[in-house]
From TrEMBL:
Role this protein plays: Ubiquitin-like protein involved in autophagic vesicle formation.
PANTHER family: AUTOPHAGY PROTEIN 12, UBIQUITIN-LIKE PROTEIN ATG12
Any one GO cellular component localisation term in the record: phagophore assembly site membrane
Biased composition (Basic and acidic residues): 1-12, 25-39
Membrane topology label: Peripheral membrane protein
Domain of life (superkingdom): Eukaryota
GO BP annotations, alphabetical order: autophagosome assembly; autophagosome maturation; autophagy of mitochondrion; glycophagy; piecemeal microautophagy of the nucleus
Protein family: Belongs to the ATG12 family.
Protein name: Ubiquitin-like protein ATG12
Assembly: Forms a conjugate with ATG5.
Length: 127
């Protein structure tokens, strides 16, 4: 068991944006590196890009183990988009995360002030 803890610590030091041992083993990272809110959910702030319908409610609490694809599906349903309409999601107005990316991984890397800011749009804006 001590070997697993050592391995986890080594992995956290060599943490990459794409994967970590915590993700592979479905374990939560230790409190020392975990900067998410005390609740079991992660707050996501959804902001619209130009020429995109604006959601009335912008702040949502999401299960940290959800994939970004489920967030995209939720936005599509909320905005009542046709299946033929494209929806793009961006982190920090910089890049489009992969739909299989886990919410808590993005929060750990890009979360600020206790929330993860995501931009959504019907057309490509960044990245």
């Amino acid at each position: 068991m001590a070997e697993t803890k050592s391995s986890t610590k080594d992995t956290q030091e060599a943490y990459t944006e794409e994967t970590s041992e915590c993700e592979v083993n479905n374990e939560k990272p230790p409190d020392s590196i975990d900067n998410k809110p005390k609740s079991d959910k992660i707050d996501i702030l959804l902001k619209a890009t130009p020429n995109t319908p604006i959601m009335k409610k912008k702040k949502w609490s999401v299960d940290p183990d959800k994939k970004i694809g489920s967030v995209i599906d939720f936005i599509r349903k909320y905005l009542k988009l046709d299946p033929s309409e494209h929806l793009f999601l961006y982190v920090n107005q910089a890049f489009a995360p992969s739909p299989d990316q886990i919410v808590h991984n993005l929060y750990d890397c890009f979360g600020t002030d206790g929330k993860l800011v995501l931009y959504y749009g019907l057309g490509q804006a960044w990245g």
